[in-house]
Amino acid sequence: MPVNEGDLVLIRASIILAIFVKDIRQYYGKSPTISWGLLFPATLVVLLGYYGAGLGSYRVIPSLLGITLLFSGTSMTHVAMGFDKASGGIETLIHSPIRPVELLIAKIMGGVIFGLLGVGVGTAILWGLYGSLQAINPVFLWIGIIFGSIIFSLLGLLVSSVLDVIQAVMVLNALRFLMIFLGGMLPKELLPEIVQPLAYILPISYVNDLIRYGIYNLFDYVDPISAAIIAVIYTIVLLLIVYRVIDKCFNP
Question: What single string gives the DSSP state of each residue in 211-226?
Fold first, then answer.
């Protein structure tokens, strides 16, 4: 008996949900996910939120929320893909009746949800340090948070897909710490001129600008419309690259 299109959609959606739930059960509690995805950014929020108050809350708070998204999103997808590769789970998935796009969506969902969880923890800490946080432009705030979680989840997924676990950790840490210092914590005018162009390449600069505009109606690198467009471009490019990498695993 042929399967109708509606049932087929439900079957594909259930496959995505099954992989997503499997990742939550297996990897949300892993020590690398908790330490790098929640504890480390939470520690940064406490330290930089307290000692960086002299820079102004309009600079510190958006930057720390962006950093939290960066570590939470990259950690979850890196751990999920890295452990799947190391344990042979990815081979099982490849030989299962799933499509590359379904695996991609499921992995991104895990990173995005964990990224939102990390932002929730960071927001609670900042609330305790600075008091109530009011968003002037909540639409741009959520655009920054959603696209930031997707971009950083894709970044972690890309690095862990093409490198082994140890190499992926080294590359991710290099990228993450680079983004901490060049992605908006310091005003671009204070950055050495030789590295200022690099700040315009990093996606966290635009994520932070969207969050900053959403909360304070201020921006640093580009106006919020341009930042949103650039964030969309980053998302599309990373989606295409990661899909191609995963598709090659299914069709070598």
Answer: HHHHHHS--SSS-HHH
Asked whether 176 and 96 are in contact (CB, 8 A), the reply is no
- Quickly tell me which residue has 């939120």 as its tokens: 49
Domain boundaries, the chain: 5-250
The pLDDT of residue 21 is 85
CB burial readout 138-167, b (16+ within 10 A) else e: eebbebbbbbbbbbbbbbbbbbbbebeeee
Tens digit of each residue's pLDDT (9 = 90 or more) over 119-162: 888 888 888 777 777 788 899 999 999 999 999 999 999 998 88
Neighbours of 43 (CB within 10 A): 12
Task: Report the pLDDT value the prediction gives residue 1, as an integer from 0 to 100.
Answer: 47
Six-digit token string for 129: 């340090």
- CA–CA dist 74, 157 (Å, integer): 7
Rounded to two decimals, the pTM is 0.88
